[in-house]
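Task 17 of the worksheet. Students: predict the tertiary structure of the chain below and write it out as structure tokens. Keep your answer in the requested format; marks are given for formatting as well as content.
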Amino acid sequence: MLTDHPIDRRWLVRNFNGNKVLFVSDLHLGFDVEWFGRGLWTTKPNWSIEIIRNLRNDILKIRPTHLIICGDLEHHFRIRKKKNEENHILIPEDVQSTILHEFRSKILEIPDLNIFLVQGENDISIYQELAETCKILPSEGTPLFNNQLGVFHGNISPFKEIVFTSEIILGHLHPEIELKDDLQIRHKYPVFLRLSTPREDLFTLFHFPFELEEIGMVDLVPITILPTYNHFLSGYVVNIIGGGKRRHKSYPILRPILHHSDTRIQMTDGIELGLLIDL
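Model answer:
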């Protein structure tokens, strides 16, 4: 049966030691400001507030014990000042205070919810305001739930302890695929990237030195890269070889994952599209 609202689940739910954990990533609250530099301006962060309210609705439906935001809760953007030089433009104070008030009233006041915030490269000021009410994790991540989960953002290599966890979840990439219809019209869709890889490969990927007892660790560890929870933002198109070379260079530690033979694609409505190399 068709509905007016297509399913778009940009979140992941896992259970660890009896804990129901909801994962989202890359909300980029305050991204509304960026449009000012592109000729469009709204005096209020209406889109960011909509994202917060959507997250609250998902939390109330799922009823998790834990919420983990895998980096880039907030947003700042860059404008080119001179050649090879960038200037960081931060969220204005009035916009930041509005977002903080909305996040506190809609998310932090949900009872019996433990919130973990992984710091992304865009998280600068809002995280400092939330440090007393949320558990802040570094970009390099940390093992959780007795090493069952390793979570990090993805902009830099994780701590070595992440490699020894039972499952790894991260964000940062904003993965999406691009498909053409019969009229050659391009359509982009956010997706989850999933693969299982030997732990030994992760040592090579993240340039960790091997200890003697770690050589030959061929048991597989599942990895999931989350899509951006922000439905206003685009992402990195993973099924176009050679496309967006500039952006490709901005994801150095994730590049081998994109070329992994076992990387699979799942749409946000749950449809499995198979292997990335076959798209």
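Marker's comment: The first helix runs from residue 46 to 62. The domain at 12-278 is CATH 3.60.21 (Purple Acid Phosphatase; chain A, domain 2).
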